[in-house]
Amino acid sequence: MKHLATLNKYFWKYRKRFFIGIFFVMGSNYFAVMAPQITGFVVNLVQQRLPGARPAGSRPVHDRLVDWFITTVQSAHLSFGWIITISCLTILLSAIIRGILMFFMRQTIIVMSRHIEFDQKNEIYTHYQRLDTHFYRTHSTGDLMNRMTEDVSRVRMFTGPAVMYLINLVSLIGFCVVNMLRKDVHLTILVLAPLPILAATIYFVNSVINKKSEKIQALLSDLTTNAQESFSGIRVIKSFAQEKAMLGFFRKNSEEYKKNAVGLAKVEAIYFPSMALMIGISTLVTIMIGGMQALQDSSKVGLIVEFVIYINLLTFPVSAIGWTASMIQRAAASQKRLNEFLQTEPTIVNTSDPLTAKVSGDILFKDVSFTYPHTGIRALEHFNLKIRKGDKVLLLGRTGSGKSTIAQLLLRFYDPTGGNIEIGSTDIKKIELKTLREQISYVQQDVFLFSDSVTGNISFGLATGANRDTVEQAAGFSSVHKEILGFSNGYETMIGERGVTLSGGQKQRISIARALIKEPEIIVFDDCLSAVDAKTEHEIIGNLYRYLHDKTAIIITHRIFSSFRFDNIIVLENGSVSEQGSHELLMANNGYYAELYRLQLTEEKAEIP
Ligand code: ATP
Ligand code: MG
Known about the structure:
about 600 residues; alpha/beta; ABC transporter transmembrane region fold; four-stranded antiparallel beta sheet; binds magnesium ion
C-alpha cells in the first residue's frame, strides 16, 4: 500500500477539486438519509390513525433539517392528506438534490482522476525518454507499453472510482449508523450484523474474478502478440508454407482463452445473485426482528420501515467494500511496477556543469575498453584511436569486432568501462548530452523510420523543421531524390510502420538524408550502404565526398570504397586495432585489409562481362 503514497503529490495538486468532491459526497449522502426519516414519520402518522393504535411514545430524534420539517408540517394544522403529499414531495425533492450532488461528485472526483491519469502518463513518458539504451535493452517494448497503459489505468481506478466509493461508503455509513443508533441501538446491531459477511463474501468473489481476469488478460496479450507476429511475418510464413501450423498455434491459444473466459463468466454469473441474496437476508432480518418488536409495540412500525430503507441504502456501498479493496490492491501493485521504472535513474547523465559549446576538433579514444552491462560481452579492449578534425576514417573489421560499439560510445549511448573519449581535448562526459548528440549524426546499422511522411522523416533531427529545398538537397546527396519523386505523393508520401512500403536500400538512403540535413560536425555511417547496388553506392560515395569535405567522418563498412580517399583506415579485431594507416601502407602490410581488397577486386572483375 505504501506504493500508493507516490500519488499524494497528485492529490495535493488537485486538492481543491478533491475537497469539493468530498463535500459533494457528504452532501448527497445527507440528502439520501432524509428519505427514510420522513418515511418513518409518515408511517408512524398513518399507524397512529389505525384503530387500536397505541399513543406515540417520545418523539424520535431526527437530524435538524428533518426535525424542522416535521415541526413545521405539524404546527401548520394541515389535513392528513396534505401532510402525506408534502412529505412525498419532500422525499422527491431530496432525491433530486441528491442526484444533482452525485452528478457534481462525479464531475469533481472522476474528473480529478482523469487529470491525474494524464499527468502520470506524461510523467512516465518523460521519464522513459530520459532513460538510457541499457534500460531499453533490458526491458521489452511490450512491458513498457503495458506499464504506461494498463498500469496507469488501474491506478486511475483507484484515484477515481475507488476513492469516490470509499468516501461515499464512510460518509453514508456515518450518516445511517448515527441515525440508526439514535433510534434503536439493539436493532441497529442486529440488522447490521450480516453486512460485514456480505462485504467479506464480495471481497472473496472479487479476488477470484480478478485472478481469473488477470489470467485472461495475459492470454489475450499472448493471443494478440501471436496474431501480430504472424501478420508482420506473413512473408516468412508463406515462403515456408507454414500457414496451417500457424493457424493451429493460434487456435490452441484461442481455445485456452475461450476456456478461461467461459470460466470467468460462470463466476460472474454467481456474483450478482449472491449479492442479492445477502441484501435479501439483511432486509429479512430487519423485518423479522423489527416485526416481532412491532407486535409488542405498534408505535415501532415507522422505525422498522425506516431501518429497512437504511439497510437498502447501505447494501450497495457495503458490497462495494470488497470491490474497492481489491481495486486498491491492484492499484498498489500497478503503482509498485510504475515506481520501479520511475525510480530507475539514467546512468548516462550530464555533469553538474556541462559544456554547451559546439563540439569540434580531434576525436581521441584513449585506451577505451567496454563490456556490455547485461551480457558481460567484452566488445572493446584497450582501443586507441586519434581522428583529426576533418578526417575521413574507414572502420573495417569482421562482424562482431566492435565497430558499432565504437559509434555508440561516441554518442554516449553507453560510457566506456575503461579509458575515455575526448572531442577537442574535452572528455565527452563533460559535454552536455544534447550538445554532443546534436553535433554528431549517426546513421545506424538497423534503419528505423517513423510512421510519418518522407519529409517528416528526413527533417526529424531539426528542431525548427526544414524547408523543402533543404530536404530535397539532403535527399539528392543520398541519391534518393529521384525515387522519392516517383512515389505517389512525392515527399509527402507516408512511410508505413517501420517503413514497410520502402525497399531496404531506399530506407537506408532516407536515413542517410536524415543524418546529412542536420549539418553536424561529426558524422558516423554504420554499414549504411549494405542494401544498395554498386552503381548507387558509387554515386552516393561521390556525393558524400563533396558533402563531407569539412566534416569529420567515420565510415563503418564491410566493403572497401576504392573511389573514396580516406585519411586513415582502421581494421578492428576483437575490439582492438589490428591494422591502421593509409591504403598503401595496409596493402603493403598484407593483412585483413589487403585480403579484403583483393577479394573485392576479383569480385568486381568477375561482375564485368
Ligand atoms: P557487425 O559488423 O556485424 O555490425 P560490429 O563490429 O558492429 O558487427 P558490435 O555490434 O560492435 O559489432 O558488437 C561487438 C560485440 O558486442 C559482439 O560480440 C556483440 O555480440 C556484442 N554486442 C553488440 N551489441 C550489444 C548489446 N546491445 N548488448 C550486448 N552485447 C552486444
Ligand atoms: Mg555493427
